[in-house]
Amino acid sequence: MPSVLIIDDHPVVAEGWERIARASGACDVYSAASPLAGLRAYRAHRPDMIVLDLSFGDNKMAGVRLLRRLRLHDARTPVLVFSMHRSPIIARRALEAGCNGFVNKDSPPEEINAAFSTLSSGGFYVSPAIATRIAMLSRPSSPGAEIRLTEREMEILGMLAAGRSYREIASAICVSYKTVANVSHSLREKLKASSIAELVVKAIDYFDTA
Fold first, then answer.
1. Is pTM, for the whole model, over 0.70?
2. How far apart are CA 182 and CA 48, in angstroms?
3. Where do the HTH luxR-type domain residues begin and end (predicted)?
């Protein structure tokens, strides 16, 4: 994890993330206190990971708009949303916009560290409490009742929903990285998910209704 960009308008929060990033091996840590400054910093430094707040001043969803803008040009850089919002609707919007993880600012330190570590190794992470509340949202088009998955697909889908990376899944179930990638591609097609982050949301849906 050579470089990390922290986009948050609270200096204490930014300093805390800098300590976490450097403890995890980041060589360069950049900070930005607004969405515009964050976009400029991203273009200037092309970081390997982004930690993003959602609220800036009175604009409670500025981070989601920035995330969507970033994803128009970059679908691969891991983005961890670190937000005060506990609403599952806002969390789901952030996931649908393309973030790779969502953790609350009042989460315990071990959960915050776990989220950062998981994304830095290529995985996906959603705070358990938020994941449960997302699963409880009304879903008129939930895929669980109408789509059949193989045992292998269900196994990999469950591990993706738990935040495991392709490499971790391949090691855990003794298959190749390519196999996991191919199954994940098949899952995205079956569940009509445009990204792995969206697939995580649909995985929660699937296991809640299957």
1. no
2. 24
3. 142-207
- Domains with residue ranges and CATH for the chain: 3-135 (3.40.50.2300), 151-209 (1.10.10.10)
- The Cα 57–Cα 23 span in angstroms is 29
CA-to-CA separations, 112 to 36, 103, 126, 150, 209, in angstroms, rounded? 25, 7, 10, 33, 29
Contact residues for 46 (Cβ-Cβ < 8 A; gap 6+): 3, 77
Cα distance between residue 167 and residue 32, in whole Å: 32
26 and 122 Cβ atoms separated by less than 8 Å: no
At 188, list the tokens. Answer: 């995205």
Q: Write the pLDDT tens digit of every residue in 114-143.
A: 999 999 999 999 988 888 878 776 555 544
Helix, strand or coil for residue 7?
strand
Which H or E run includes 153? Answer: helix 151-161
For residue 132, give both structure tokens.
């449960």
The CB density around residue 113, as the number of other CB atoms within 10 Å, is: 15
Residue 115's nearest CA partner among 65, 47, 68, 162 is 162
Q: How many residues does the chain have?
A: 210
